Task: inverse folding
């Protein structure tokens, strides 16, 4: 458990903090995720992916739930409004600042911009695909397709470049 | 073909469910649609596999790896009462196709690390772009260990701790009075073979001068500086192999050079 924490807690914490936009709740998410791993290790099925991706998926789901709660959403939207006031929506740059690993940059930059934007808004923004469609002014079906196609497109690039998640 | 739903969730065709898999993997599907997908996955290995693949990619994107607050583990540990059932970690073993692993926590350190650290010193750097100095060729690995041991025992030698405030990465160096220095220890993640660590002397104005490349797995490494330049800091970056003449990458670890005299 301690070894799993040592290896993965940083990434779990960073993702939760990224989606939630604050540290206190992000710490709670990390705690919850690792306690769940401890109490319900059978929920992790290694045949379905690495432990790291499992923990990150757990953290992302929990963070998104919290973001979508009304109170959290209001705080977050207020915060985003302040952060982006006068400068427009600048999530793309924030993501670039975070995802600096060369291989990930390479995979992400290889995406068509519309696919990249849809994935970023959904994953890092914590928005549903329907919300993303509204934000981008695109049909919902188009956004669904862009997210799925973009994820598929990145996988071989990441695999070929040796990125490992475990 | 219509896929099985449950409860109030309206059934969706398999094609419609497939179209949702990417968004579902990113937690971007809500309500009855999410319920339909969740109910479908246990019955459909192909869709289950696709969601797992999407989540691996998403994990790479989200894998920004800054350090978690140190006290957080204490809180978690305090909550652990009974030993859990055995945890299967078989997939933690590196996959053959991914053996050129890059630990992604490196990304966060690179993203967050600031480079501007100013300390007063005076060392002139013998810039050795892309090569280590003559000491490397003069001594064997064993000999190098002896040289480094002697350097560490030299009372006039000065230690340099290279650290990062945002990660657990670190390195140590020792610098002798004659300008010879040695990277003696490095706690840095392994890089892929297409990349290399590189040691830099950073001048007070921020200009970097290469002191040599360290390879993807840094070990004992000699370098050479001498006292007349404005170098104030040692820093390590990760560069595309075989190394960079000019680096614009964020330093992963850095530490102040000892002041002269």
Result:
């Amino acid at each position: 458990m301690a070894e799993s924490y040592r290896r993965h807690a940083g990434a779990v914490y960073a993702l939760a903090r990224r989606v939630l936009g604050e540290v206190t709740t992000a710490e709670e998410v990390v705690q919850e995720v690792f306690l769940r791993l401890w109490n319900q290790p059978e929920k992790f099925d290694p045949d379905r992916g690495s432990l790291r991706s499992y923990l990150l998926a757990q953290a992302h789901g929990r963070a998104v739930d919290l973001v979508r709660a009304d109170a959290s959403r209001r705080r977050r939207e207020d915060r985003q409004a302040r952060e982006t006031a006068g400068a427009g929506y600048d999530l793309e740059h924030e993501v670039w600042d975070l995802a600096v690993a060369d291989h990930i940059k390479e995979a992400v930059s290889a995406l068509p911009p519309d696919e990249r934007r849809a994935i970023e808004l959904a994953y890092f923004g914590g928005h549903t695909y329907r919300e993303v469609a509204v934000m981008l002014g695109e049909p919902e079906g188009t956004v669904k397709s862009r997210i799925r196609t973009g994820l598929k497109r990145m996988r071989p690039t990441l695999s070929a470049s040796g990125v490992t998640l475990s | 073909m219509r896929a099985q739903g449950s409860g109030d969730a309206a059934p969706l065709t398999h094609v419609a469910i497939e179209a949702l898999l990417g968004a579902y993997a990113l937690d971007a599907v809500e309500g009855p649609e999410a319920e339909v997908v969740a109910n479908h996955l246990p019955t459909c290995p192909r869709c289950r596999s696709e969601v797992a693949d999407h989540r691996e990619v998403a994990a790479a994107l989200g894998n920004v790896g800054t350090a978690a607050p140190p006290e957080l583990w204490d809180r978690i540990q305090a909550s652990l009462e009974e030993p859990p059932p055995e945890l299967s970690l078989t997939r933690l073993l590196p996959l053959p196709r991914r053996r050129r692993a890059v630990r992604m926590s490196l990304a966060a350190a690179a993203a967050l690390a600031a480079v501007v650290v100013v300390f007063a010193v005076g060392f002139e750097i013998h810039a050795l772009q892309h090569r280590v100095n003559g000491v490397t060729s003069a001594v064997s690995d064993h000999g190098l260990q002896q040289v480094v041991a002697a350097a560490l025992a030299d009372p006039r030698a000065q230690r340099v701790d290279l650290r990062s405030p945002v990660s657990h990465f670190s390195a140590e160096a020792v610098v002798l009075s004659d300008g010879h220095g040695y990277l003696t220890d490095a706690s840095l993640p392994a890089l892929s073979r297409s990349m290399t660590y590189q040691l830099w002397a950073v001048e007070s104005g921020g200009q970097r001068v290469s002191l040599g490349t360290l390879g993807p797995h840094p070990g004992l490494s000699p370098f050479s500086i001498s006292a007349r330049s404005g170098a104030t800091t040692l820093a390590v970056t990760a560069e595309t192999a075989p190394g960079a003449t000019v680096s614009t990458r964020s330093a992963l670890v850095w530490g102040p050079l000892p002041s002269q005299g």
About this structure: Chain B has a mean pLDDT of 71. Strands of chain B lie at 124-125, 158-163, 170-175, 180-187, 195-203, 208-215, 221-226, 231-240, 253-256. Chain B touches chain A through 70 residues (CB under 8 Å).
